[in-house]
């Protein structure tokens, strides 16, 4: 399914979000700027899709550190998505086809992990967070950007209508990928609340967990630290 969506993934992200997705990624990048400003920090973008977050991280690192910055590693299990990422990212960026649940790096080998709009697709959230904690060096950070469900009266009802009735029809038609965007709506419906995800992060051994609802709760950014 993800491979079939890949050719028009970026177009649909901009179209269906009204380019608000760009703002969300910028919020993630700003939230982890202190790590990005360290030239030797080891940065891993998991479930990277076509590389939009990895590209934003690379640009911020270049701005803060210049060409001496260690390249970002961008990883996804879907080859067509990585092919899209490869067309965007600088040649030094490491692209790795791998499973985020069993990632082929040693313990404590990463200073920052980012995951944008891919975490909810993982098979086991608790196991994934434990894997992130394994990968992180002491004081390493993880940032998870995911869809959520708005609770603001009035807006929540309008967004629910758009998300369940309008978005899937446009997404499925433009992508030509069957019911991929119907899956998106279903996956968000069954995903953890921001509070539940925060608790799960703490149970995995992460600390200093905080989250920020974005765009009236349409998405949510969680950041935590490995002690």
What does this entry look like structurally?
With 227 residues, this protein is of the alpha/beta class. The chain has a single domain, classed as Vaccinia Virus protein VP39 (Rossmann fold, 3-Layer(aba) Sandwich), CATH 3.40.50. The chain is built from ten helices and seven strands. The chain has helices spanning 2-5, 9-17, 20-31, 33-36, 52-65, 79-88, 125-135, 155-175, 180-189, 194-203; strands spanning 43-46, 73-76, 94-97, 110-116, 136-147, 207-214, 219-225. Strands 3-2-1-4-5-7-6 form a seven-stranded mixed sheet, sandwiched between helices. Strand 4 (110-116), helix 7 (125-135) and strand 5 (136-147) form a beta-alpha-beta unit. The protein is globular, with a radius of gyration of 17 Å. The protein starts with a helix and ends with a strand. The model has no long low-confidence stretch (mean pLDDT 92).
Residue share in helices?
Answer: 40-55%
Report strand %: 15-25%
Instruction: Kindly give the count of domains.
Output: 1
Unreliable residue runs: none
Please provide a brief summary of the model.
The chain is an alpha/beta fold. It has helices at residues 2-5, 9-17, 20-31, 33-36, 52-65, 79-88, 125-135, 155-175, 180-189, 194-203; strands at residues 43-46, 73-76, 94-97, 110-116, 136-147, 207-214, 219-225.
For the structure shown, list the relevant keywords:
227 residues; alpha/beta; Rossmann fold; 7-stranded mixed β-sheet; 20% strand
Give the topology.
Layout: H1 2-5, H2 9-17, H3 20-31, H4 33-36, E1 43-46, H5 52-65, E2 73-76, H6 79-88, E3 94-97, E4 110-116, H7 125-135, E5 136-147, H8 155-175, H9 180-189, H10 194-203, E6 207-214, E7 219-225
Parallel strand pairs: 1-2, 1-4, 2-3, 4-5
Antiparallel strand pairs: 5-7, 6-7
Helix pairs in contact: 8-9
């Amino acid at each position: 399914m993800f491979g079939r969506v890949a050719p028009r993934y970026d177009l649909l992200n901009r179209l269906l979000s009204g380019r608000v997705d760009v703002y969300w990624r910028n919020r993630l990048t700003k939230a982890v700027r202190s790590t990005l400003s360290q030239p030797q920090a080891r940065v891993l973008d998991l479930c990277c899709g076509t590389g939009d977050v990895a590209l934003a991280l690379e640009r911020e690192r270049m701005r803060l550190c210049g060409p001496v910055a260690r390249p970002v590693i961008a990883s996804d299990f879907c080859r067509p998505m990585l092919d899209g990422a490869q067309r965007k990212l600088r040649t030094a960026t490491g692209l790795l086809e791998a499973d985020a649940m069993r990632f082929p790096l040693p313990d404590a080998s990463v200073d920052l992990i980012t995951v944008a709009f891919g975490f909810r697709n993982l098979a086991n959230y608790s196991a994934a967070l434990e894997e992130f904690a394994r990968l992180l060096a002491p004081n390493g950070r993880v940032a998870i950007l995911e869809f959520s469900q708005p609770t603001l009266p009035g807006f929540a009802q309008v967004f629910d209508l758009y998300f369940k009735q309008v978005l899937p029809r446009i997404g499925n038609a433009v992508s030509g990928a069957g019911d991929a965007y119907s899956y998106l709506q279903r996956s968000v419906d069954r995903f953890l609340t921001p509070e539940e995800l925060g608790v799960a992060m703490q149970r995995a051994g992460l600390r200093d967990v905080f989250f920020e609802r974005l765009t009236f709760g349409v998405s949510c950014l969680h950041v935590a630290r490995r002690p």
